[in-house]
Amino acid sequence: QSALTQPASVSGSPGQSITISCTGTSDDVGAYNYVSWYQQHPGKAPKLLIYDVSSRPSGASNRFSGSKSGNTASLTISGLQSEDEGDYYCSSKTTNGDVLFGGGTKLTVL
Amino acid sequence: QVTLKESGPTLVKPTQTLTLTCTFSGFSFSTDEVAVGWVRQPPGKALQWLTIVHWNDDKRYSPSLRSRLTITKDTSGNQVVLTMTNMDPVDTATYYCARGTLEGGFDFWGQGIMLIVSS
């Protein structure tokens, strides 16, 4: 099993929208609607932003949204803010019942 | 309020066996259909899923580490224990435990424990 593929870095200016992609296969991302997204700030534990492709847990900002098409899931952050800067990871359940994470994307707010 | 906390050694020698404990509160294996898993993160690198145990004792392991990992749950004590054998310096990482769902997500995380493998 290889990690899900994410761009190494993305950037945007305050107020803009950015999208981070997460590409897998028909054995993981494409198999179920079980993709999650996490935000991680330096030295902190990851925080769940999105689960089941597009659902937000209680307390998560509605500026974060998720979608999926085929074997690729996407996280969109609208109205970028400086506090959004950090690392973002996708994950997916696989047909074996395992969990795969993506390689992570570093978001820079210019 | 859901909380999880990892405990264990912060330094182990190569070839030794690592034992980490995750102590949680705010949910229970005996009353909730939940799971607890372990995820690690080498310094400067990505998250890596290791293993998970569900309320019904269903256990899953990372294929690449399956031969070295064991996860057990102590229902009465609200603890989950991770055992990893034959430790190597490449296993140096922050180890997190987290509450998992049937759908594979992790909604609550511990603070993590930084482990160094060195002689």
Explain how this protein is built.
- The complex is a heterodimer of chains A (110) and B (119).
- By secondary structure, chain A is mostly beta strands.
- Chain A has strands at 9-12, 18-23, 35-40, 47-50, 64-69, 72-77, 86-93, 99-101, 105-109.
- In chain A, the strands form 2 sheets. In chain A, strands 1, 3, 4, 7, 8 and 9 form a 6-stranded mixed sheet that branches. A 3-stranded antiparallel sheet of chain A has the order 2-6-5, with no helix packed on it.
- In chain A, strand 3 and strand 4 form a beta hairpin.
- Chain A is globular and about 40 Å long.
- With 119 residues, chain B is mainly beta.
- Chain B has strands spanning 3-7, 11-12, 18-25, 35-41, 48-54, 59-61, 69-74, 79-84, 93-100, 106-109, 113-117.
- In chain B, strands 2, 4, 5, 6, 9, 10 and 11 form a 7-stranded mixed sheet that branches. In chain B, strands 1-3-8-7 form a 4-stranded antiparallel sheet, with no helix packed on it.
- The mean pLDDT of chain B is 95.
- Classes of the chains: A mainly beta (110), B mainly beta (119).
- The A-B interface holds A 1, 3, 32, 34, 36, 38, 40, 45-48, 51-52, 57, 89, 91-93, 96-104 and B 37, 39, 46-49, 52, 58, 60-64, 96, 98, 100-101, 103-112.
SSE blueprint and pairings:
The complex is a heterodimer of chains A (110) and B (119).
Chain A: E1 9-12, E2 18-23, E3 35-40, E4 47-50, E5 64-69, E6 72-77, E7 86-93, E8 99-101, E9 105-109
Parallel strand pairs in A: 1-9
Antiparallel strand pairs in A: 2-6, 3-4, 3-7, 5-6, 7-8, 7-9
Chain B: E1 3-7, E2 11-12, E3 18-25, E4 35-41, E5 48-54, E6 59-61, E7 69-74, E8 79-84, E9 93-100, E10 106-109, E11 113-117
Parallel strand pairs in B: 2-11
Antiparallel strand pairs in B: 1-3, 3-8, 4-5, 4-9, 5-6, 7-8, 9-10, 9-11
Low-confidence stretches of chain A: none
Oligomer: heterodimer
- Structural class estimated from helices and strands of chain A: mainly beta
Helix content of chain A: under 10%
Average pLDDT of chain A, rounded to a whole number, is 96
What value does the average pLDDT of chain B take? 95
Largest sheet of chain B: 7 strands, mixed
What percentage of amino acids of chain A are in beta strands?
Answer: 35-45%
| Alpha-carbon distance between the two ends of chain A | 35 Å
SSE string of chain B, helix = H, strand = E? EEEEEEEEEEE
- Return the string of H and E elements of chain A: EEEEEEEEE
* Shape annotation of chain B: globular
Q: In angstroms, what is the radius of gyration of chain A?
A: 13 Å
Stretches of chain B where pLDDT falls below 50 for ≥5 residues? none
Q: Kindly, what is the distance between the CA atoms of the first and last residues of chain B, rounded to a whole number of angstroms?
A: 40 Å
Number of DSSP strand runs of chain B? 11
